[in-house]
């Protein structure tokens, strides 16, 4: 029945790779690369072919098969499967590379660090200690050919062919018969001295000394070469000399040798070894210890080997987040390790975890994700952003903590190119409208305006026409000076998205109003913008044929290239974050926009100045996760021809310092300019092109808190006293008609888009005030009627004899 016979090699669930064997080993085994047929996962397959007349070698191979199958230790080659037939032996282990090949490849790739060698020798010592002290086994074959390295750089002890029991059971050590292996035998085993008194570990420790010499100096030519340490590190030389001493009695136990090398300033006492030891025991560590470890891990990852970070640190980070309570502390090292991954590996390992993190309610997790979005946004596809990321990110717009709202606004710069029509032109604009009109923090309102100017090119033509002019016009009325500057710069950054009619009827009237702004920096930017828009209008007036070319982007579809270089914007949104809102909140945690952001005014002449009121600083419960303030971007424009889209929009904090610290002196034209400002000799010249105006933008100046009240012209009102939405604001306002809407149109909801949602909020404000006034008049009328009725009832009929008083 020959057809019932089956070939065991063919049915074996692993197959050999067609590649040639990895190197040549002096032992009986030949190492091949292989893979598992079912999953394709890589493995290593040790193959021994039975040959006639080699019964002794066959018994050695079968003994090694049995030993490897029964011994389990993290530092001993891991057995997976095996096959034993009359013709061959197959031993399947984890995917490994012989140590000799690994060291050669590492040296060719740029050198091998000493800390990697210290950890590798540490692992071999632990394996020997396990065999000698716990199993009472003598390895009897410690050499370069018996050590293998896995993909994470971990050293594994193999070559168990000549292992025997230290208790004498089963006879003495087996005969090797291979000169390449016998050269590592200690001198006491030669001749009659083999019966010398020695410890059970003496021979293996001599062979370990030979291995150390070969690791640092290359192949061992002869035993006499051991007397010269060569390139062995000085911190290891004293302990190495103990291993290769002529007296076998003084050779230390593997456990004691390991302890000596781990002493202070020892060869194995370094950060890399400490990190590996912690990772091996991370499952039994306390949560506080894990938190501290992950916080310090990021500083060391740059000096660690890439394979170690990818294959050992990364799985532990993913496990700590998935099943542990590590929380937000794993994010920084996680993204740092992610730089070593390919795009495919990043998509498989990091992105699923990141998407899951966005659904977390932990504020520290959310703010760190927003801060480091630049590192993973390129790996997120559009469907994932719109369905799994953006719905969770928008919750940050409604967060009660200003720092999260600020970071959420800045993150939109990276998300905008990947958002669909609804999320970008409807949902995001609704939140921006609310923030710009209602947020009580001036920096957040300012950053909303800046972000809108940067993502304006991604908006649809209808949304741009409906939103941009109204949004930037509103920003120019903000009581926070940097917000007004941002409004002017927003007009400039999107100048090619407006028709000539809008420039003349909507934008220029707004900018002209800023020429009398209390802040000089606002006035300076307004004058520059006015000259630029006038130059544009004048050029079209001189040559009407240019109109089509000038307005080519007005009705064009959304284009990423219109607004500027995305790279510079991304740098602002992430690396330029300075947590300005958090700093202001710590200084004035309960201040309103009028109290915190409005410039201080001097009291009218003849009235005493009001006493300053101190605002109590209430501690916030989330202070432990507030982001640290990063370095401010102080780079200046490299040439006067730089465009607006290449300017540092993220340094608004610096702009506010110059705005609030600048004296409001209209006549001080000859005074010296303040520190941080750049003087331009041709400032008075007519700037007819955009590049000359853009190069003078002062976005690289810093913000600082006002230290003293700034005197203002008599009669100037406080920003908080200005009626932004009432009818009084339209008196004497040449562009008040911009916000007028036909009465037949329905009034939009404040948080949704109607015809013009940026102005819909002001319409609702006026309606609410009118309704409140009507209710007060009605209540007053009722009170008066009640008083009249009470007086009539109190008089009643007059008593007899009572005298009527006039």
From TrEMBL:
The stretch of residues making up the signal peptide is none
Q: Which UniProt keywords apply?
A: Coiled coil, Cytoplasm, Cytoskeleton, ER-Golgi transport, Golgi apparatus, Phosphoprotein, Repeat, Transport
Instruction: Return the annotated region ranges for Disordered.
Output: 15-35, 590-806
Q: Does the keyword tRNA processing apply?
A: no
Family annotation (Pfam families): Pkinase
| SUPFAM superfamilies named among the record's database cross-references | ARM repeat, Protein kinase-like (PK-like)
Record flagged with keyword RNA-binding: no
For the biological process aspect of GO, one term held by this record is: spinal cord motor neuron differentiation
- Mark out the compositionally biased spans (Low complexity): 614-623
Q: Where is the Protein kinase domain?
A: 14-314
Share what the entry says about its subunit structure, partners included: Homooligomer. Interacts with GORAB. Interacts with COPA, COPB1 and COPB2. Interacts with AP2B1.
Purpose: Regulates COPI-mediated retrograde protein traffic at the interface between the Golgi apparatus and the endoplasmic reticulum. Involved in the maintenance of the Golgi apparatus morphology.
What this protein is called in its record is N-terminal kinase-like protein
Q: Which gene encodes it?
A: Scyl1
């Amino acid at each position: 029945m020959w057809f019932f016979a089956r070939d065991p090699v063919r049915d074996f669930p692993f197959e050999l790779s067609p590649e040639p064997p990895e190197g040549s080993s002096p032992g009986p085994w030949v190492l091949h690369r292989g893979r598992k047929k079912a999953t394709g996962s890589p493995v290593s397959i040790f193959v021994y072919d039975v040959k006639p007349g080699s019964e002794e070698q066959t018994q050695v191979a079968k003994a090694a098969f049995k030993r490897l199958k029964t011994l389990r230790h993290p530092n001993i080659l891991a057995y997976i499967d095996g096959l034993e037939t009359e013709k061959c032996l197959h031993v399947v282990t984890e995917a490994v590379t012989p140590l000799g090949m690994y060291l050669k490849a590492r040296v060719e790739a740029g050198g091998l660090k000493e800390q990697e060698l210290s950890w590798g020798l540490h692992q071999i010592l632990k394996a020997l200690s396990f065999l000698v002290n716990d199993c009472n086994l003598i390895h009897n074959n410690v050499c370069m050919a018996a050590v293998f390295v896995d993909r994470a750089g971990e050293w594994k002890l193999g070559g168990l062919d000549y292992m025997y029991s230290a208790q004498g059971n089963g006879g003495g050590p087996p005969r090797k018969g291979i000169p390449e292996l016998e050269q590592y035998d200690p001198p006491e085993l030669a001749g009659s001295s083999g019966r010398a008194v020695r410890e059970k570990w003496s021979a293996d420790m001599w062979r370990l000394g030979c291995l150390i010499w070969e690791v640092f100096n290359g192949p061992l030519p002869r035993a006499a070469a051991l007397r010269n340490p060569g390139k062995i590190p000085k911190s290891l030389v004293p302990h190495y000399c103990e291993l290769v001493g002529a007296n076998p009695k003084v050779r230390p136990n593997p456990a004691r040798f390991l302890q000596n090398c781990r002493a202070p300033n020892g060869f194995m006492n370094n950060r890399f070894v400490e990190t590996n030891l912690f990772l091996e025991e991370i499952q039994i560590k306390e949560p506080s210890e894990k938190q501290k470890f992950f916080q310090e891990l990021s500083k060391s990852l740059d000096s660690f080997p890439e394979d170690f970070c990818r294959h050992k640190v990364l799985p532990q980070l993913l496990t700590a987040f998935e099943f542990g309570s590590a929380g937000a502390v794993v994010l920084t090292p996680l993204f740092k390790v992610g730089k070593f991954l390919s795009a495919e590996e990043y998509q498989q390992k990091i992105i699923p975890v990141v998407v899951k993190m966005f659904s977390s309610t932990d504020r520290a997790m959310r703010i760190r994700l927003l801060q480091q979005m630049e590192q993973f946004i390129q790996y997120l596809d559009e469907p994932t952003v719109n369905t799994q990321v953006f719905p969770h990110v928008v919750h940050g717009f409604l967060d009660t903590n200003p720092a999260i709202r600020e970071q959420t606004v800045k993150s939109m710069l990276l998300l905008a190119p990947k958002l669909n029509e609804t999320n970008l032109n409807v949902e995001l604009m609704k939140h921006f409208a609310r923030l710009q009109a209602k947020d009580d923090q001036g920096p957040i309102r300012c950053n909303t305006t800046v972000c809108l100017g940067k993502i304006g090119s991604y908006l649809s033509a209808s949304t741009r026409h409906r939103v941009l002019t109204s949004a930037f016009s509103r920003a120019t009325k903000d009581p926070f000076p940097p917000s007004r500057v941002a409004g002017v710069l927003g007009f400039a950054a999107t100048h090619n998205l407006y028709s000539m009619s809008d420039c003349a009827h909507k934008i220029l009237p707004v900018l002209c109003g800023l020429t009398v702004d209390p802040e000089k920096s606002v006035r300076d930017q307004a004058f520059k913008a006015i000259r630029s828009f006038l130059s544009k209008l004048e050029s079209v007036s001189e040559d009407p044929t240019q109109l089509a070319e000038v307005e080519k982007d007005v009705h064009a579809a959304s284009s990423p290239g219109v607004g500027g270089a995305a790279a510079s914007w991304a740098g602002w949104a992430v690396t330029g974050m300075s947590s300005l809102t958090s700093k202001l909140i710590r200084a004035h945690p309960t201040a309103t926009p009028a109290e915190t952001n409005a410039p201080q005014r001097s009291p009218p002449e003849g009235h005493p100045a009001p006493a300053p009121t101190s605002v109590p600083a209430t501690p916030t419960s989330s202070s432990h996760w507030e982001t640290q303030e990063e370095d401010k971007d102080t780079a200046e424009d490299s040439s006067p021809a730089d465009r607006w889209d290449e300017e540092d929009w993220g340094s608004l904090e610096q702009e506010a310092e110059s705005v609030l610290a600048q004296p409001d002196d209209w006549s001080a034209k000859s005074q010296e300019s303040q520190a941080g400002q750049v003087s331009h000799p041709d400032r008075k010249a007519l700037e007819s092109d955009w590049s000359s105006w853009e190069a003078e933008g002062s976005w690289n100046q810093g913000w600082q808190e006002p230290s003293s009240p700034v005197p203002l012209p008599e009669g100037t009102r406080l920003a908080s006293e200005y009626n932004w939405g009432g009818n009084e604001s339209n008196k004497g306002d040449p562009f008040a008609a911009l916000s007028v809407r036909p009465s037949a149109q329905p009034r939009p909801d404040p948080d949704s888009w109607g015809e013009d949602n940026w102005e819909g909020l002001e319409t609702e404000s006026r309606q609410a005030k009118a309704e409140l006034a009507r209710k007060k008049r009605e209540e007053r009328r009722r009170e008066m009627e009640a008083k009249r009725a009470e007086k009539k009832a109190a008089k009643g009929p007059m008593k007899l004899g009572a005298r009527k008083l006039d």
